[in-house]
Amino acid sequence: MNDTQNIPDPKLLFASDNEKTFSSDESLPSLPVPDLQHTLQRYLDSVKPHVTDEEYRQTEFIVQQFASGVGKELHKKLVEKASKERNWLEKWWEEKGYLELGIPMVPYMNLIGPGPYVNHFWTPQRGTQLERAGFVLHYVTQFWKLIRSEKLKVEVDNKGRKMCMNQMKRAFSTCRVPGVFRDQLLSHFKTESEGQTPVHAVVLYKGRMFSVDMVDDQEEPLRPPEIQHQLTQIKEQCDREPPGIGLGALTGETRKKWAEMRSRLSALHPENFHNLKKIETSLFTVSLDETEPQNNSETFFYTGAGINAKDRWFDKSVNHIFYRNGICGCNCDHAPYDGMVMISSTFYIDLNVQRSKGKWQGSMEIRNLPKPTELKFHVDSVILEAIVAAEKFFLSNASLLSCNTFKYTKYGKKALRKHKLHPDTHIQLVLQYAYYKTHGKPAPVYETATTRKFYHGRTETLRSCTVEAVEVFKTLCDP
User: What is the C-alpha separation between 351 and 440, in angstroms, rounded?
Assistant: First the structure.
């Protein structure tokens, strides 16, 4: 039997002709304001595992004062705000949680992850970098087309309730622009019904940048061999010519410093402004990297920080990274969307990799395509010195990141479900127990909860360390 028959068809899982991707968003309920007393009780519940009885009594007193005093007034203002907005938290979350922090994007803010393809058909192998990049980027662009044509299925939760799909609009052609006090988040993506949209990607290699169209004249994604051909042209040109200035390193600076340099860069020459717009409007950026991670721990490190800031653009909603030995990774700005967006697109790609056993099964024809266009910047000594300083700053921050992954194979979610245990609950308890056993006290825990059943909902904080969990840990440590 062909083992690919057991791999789900991504078209059946992800595509739909019956309902448009964003058709349900407007009908979703507005984000509600939680009852004040309920919120305060949840707060006390989350505090209790971490404090003494006396500290808890003091906290209770403070909470009661807040509830009958300023808390009541603040809650009234919040309810008033919510009466005028579909999602009262949306702007605060985006600005306070991301755009106003001012800290470097990497390694502190961006989403990262290795491509799961290494777990089956794409083990480390030199000579596969561009072929695999062509394959991945083809299906990334197919996923983009599903969103653009509004044929991506509306996602539902475990109770079948429709979830907000708005974040998908910011998965492509979206970029953060640095500001001295607050960044801007600009999205240039449009659905087919909304009009024309960018169709190019920007490729970074050896400190240089190139713009490459990802679709043909009919807006169909280029085939993997065609994308590979375009990437080969870029690689061969850069390999025989001097390296570029590595402007991307500046995106790893503090936001204020990068904002200042970006303003200077734009003022130096009109072509600089045009090139910056070309990067910011691109579907995504593509980094061809000379590093060769040998395992998931190394892939996490090089993808999350690494040693090469010159060939990254950390402001982009998606930066696809392809290493010399064919390993893949993604580094993504967290401001436009949450992790499930990238998980969905990666799962779509992975299913296609598995069904084809890692090899393109379609036409190998390479049509006459426009050549990649280099984005050349006009710089001065101030910019060049800032790039050198940014590299040093990046490497200093990167040295703070340590990544270690461990694959446990003795049992998984199927075994847990046989015992009517939820995998998430199990993992939470395991992690918290390990912390308790190591440090002799419970850990302050943040777990992500989704609010996507509401209009423009994203995530919320779940405090999963409970008094009951701590009792379990104590028993395990002293049975």
Answer: 43
Distance between CA atoms of 99 and 116, rounded to whole angstroms?
Answer: 30
**CA distances, 250 to each of 24, 132, 323 (Å):** 40, 28, 21
Per-residue b/e over 373-386, b at no fewer than 16 CB within 10 Å? eebebebeeebeeb
Return the sign of the alpha-carbon dihedral for residues 195, 153, 163, 336: negative
Give pLDDT tens digits for 37-93: 999 999 999 999 999 999 999 999 999 999 999 999 999 999 999 999 999 999 999
List beta partners, residue 320: 286, 330
Task: Tell me whether residue 334 is one of the annotated catalytic residues.
Answer: yes
Tell me how far apart the alpha carbons of residues 91 and 81 are, in angstroms, rounded to a whole number: 12
Peptide bond connecting 34 to the previous residue in cis, omega within 30 degrees of 0: no
**pLDDT of 146-156, one tens digit each?**
999 999 999 99
Burial 229-255 (b: 16+ CB within 10 A, else e): bbbebbbebbeeeeebbbbbbbbbbeb
**Gap between the terminal Cα atoms of the chain:** 50
Listed in sequence order, the residues at least 6 apart from 106 whose beta carbon sits closer than 8 Å to its beta carbon are 252, 304, 305, 309, 312, 314, 331, 394, 397, 398
- Residue 347 one-letter amino acid: F
Q: Considering 200, 320, 334, 456, which one is annotated as catalytic?
A: 334
Q: How far apart are CA 166 and CA 423, in angstroms?
A: 28
Tell me, yes or no, if the pTM score tops 0.70.
yes
Give the number of other CB atoms < 10 A from CB of residue 74.
12
DSSP H helices in 282-412:
296-304, 339-355, 381-398
